[in-house]
Specification:
The protein has helices at residues 18-38, 43-49, 53-63, 66-76, 78-84, 87-122. The chain is built from six helices and no strands. Helix 1 runs antiparallel to helix 6 and helix 4 packs antiparallel against helix 6. It is mainly alpha-helical and 123 residues long. The radius of gyration is 16 Å and the shape is globular.
Length: 123
């Protein structure tokens, strides 16, 4: 029987300028937060598919932005919550972590929007 491996999103495969890549990163993460919130994706699946070591290293070295690194840090720890905390506390902390990721994504998008407005004003 053939073993099926879940797809993995690998960030270096995306093209575009660095600001465009950061914007795509934020938008993908917002989608992941929605999928995790609705239960369409489990925390373990999120790590296997996106918050894996390759992407963590890429974000740290390539984006060099504290918000992006923090997003990956919060994402990678999501499955651990359910292993080390009582169920109710883990659930509360899980939603708190998702809200933190969402806030950081919106912050990245706002930086991108502010930079775009500044670039247009200078032109």
């Amino acid at each position: 029987m053939k073993q099926r491996h879940p797809f993995r999103i690998v960030l270096p495969a995306s093209s575009g300028s660095l600001p465009e890549q950061r914007e795509l990163f934020a938008l993908v993460n917002l989608g992941l937060v929605q999928a995790l919130t609705s239960g369409a994706l489990s925390p373990t699946e999120a790590v296997e598919r996106f918050y894996h070591a390759d992407n963590c290293l890429y974000v740290q070295k390539h984006f060099r932005q504290k918000e992006a690194s923090a997003i990956m840090s919060h994402g990678v720890q999501l499955p651990d919550l359910f292993e080390c905390l009582p169920a109710e506390e883990a659930r509360r902390e899980f939603y708190h972590e998702l809200e933190t990721i969402r806030s950081l994504c919106l912050k990245l998008l706002e930086k991108r929007r502010s930079a775009s407005v500044g670039d247009r004003a200078a032109a």
